[in-house]
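Quick illustration, no need to memorize.
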Amino acid sequence: MVADQGKSKSDISLAGTFGCSAFAACFAEVCTLPLDTAKVRLQLQKKAIEGEGAALPKYRGLLGTVGTIAREEGVAALWKGVVPGLHRQCLFGGLRIGMYEPVKNFYVGKDHIGDVPLSKKILAALTTGALGITVANPTDLVKVRLQAEGKLPPGVPRRYSGALDAYSKIVRQEGFTALWTGLGPNIARNAIINAAELASYDQVKQTILKIPGFTDNVVTHLFAGLGAGFFAVCIGSPVDVVKSRMMGDSAYKSTLDCFVKTLKNDGPLAFYKGFIPNFGRLGSWNVIMFLTLEQAKKLVRSLESSS
């Protein structure tokens, strides 16, 4: 379990850990997907080219983007991509979160006593983030493709009717390996963000528990979850923008090409485009996920200990 402090806190089975992690990640995904959809639309929105009528950007700000999508496409459009999103969280969330504690224990060694060094926490989270997204990249690709559909002009037919149709068409039209489009920036993004989330949550929680008056309760989990979300957005936003643009637009030849074109056409601030909705998304996602995870593990621990 993230930020477990002793053996009594880590006596949950690997299957139970994976199940709790996948459930918590899926629950957080459903609750915050509208913010993620807004974030993706803002990241895919390119700067208007001078001399082309100076059209105002369609999406402006977190609430404005959510409102525009709901008004023009219907409220259901805010949850577009929820099916592959849940596929992703079952695989990626279950692997990256569920394997964090075992991998961390592997890195420090079975005879380690005392607090785990921050460097080992970061290394463990980088490892599980990279491994998890390598498996789950196809689900991430399909989710971004479906979220990007709404930016097409009215009357233009949609490419995909749903998640399964998207998987099928991508394989048929672009080849099986196309499901791993954007894997490079996706590994970078998710390994980095996973390290920022899990290691910071682990460290912040460990620090808070040493303050007199604080215990392992919902308040501690809330503060640690917000800290994890903030660090994740600050560190991972540039690679997140590159990942979204590569997955949503086939015009880029490589990760470097996407980075260079984004920098050249939109400027350095483009890498923090959608920062507020990204923090709104990741901050709330982390709070919901970690609160759910802690309670789910508490329940599973009691069930396993009584069986």
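The mean pLDDT is 85.
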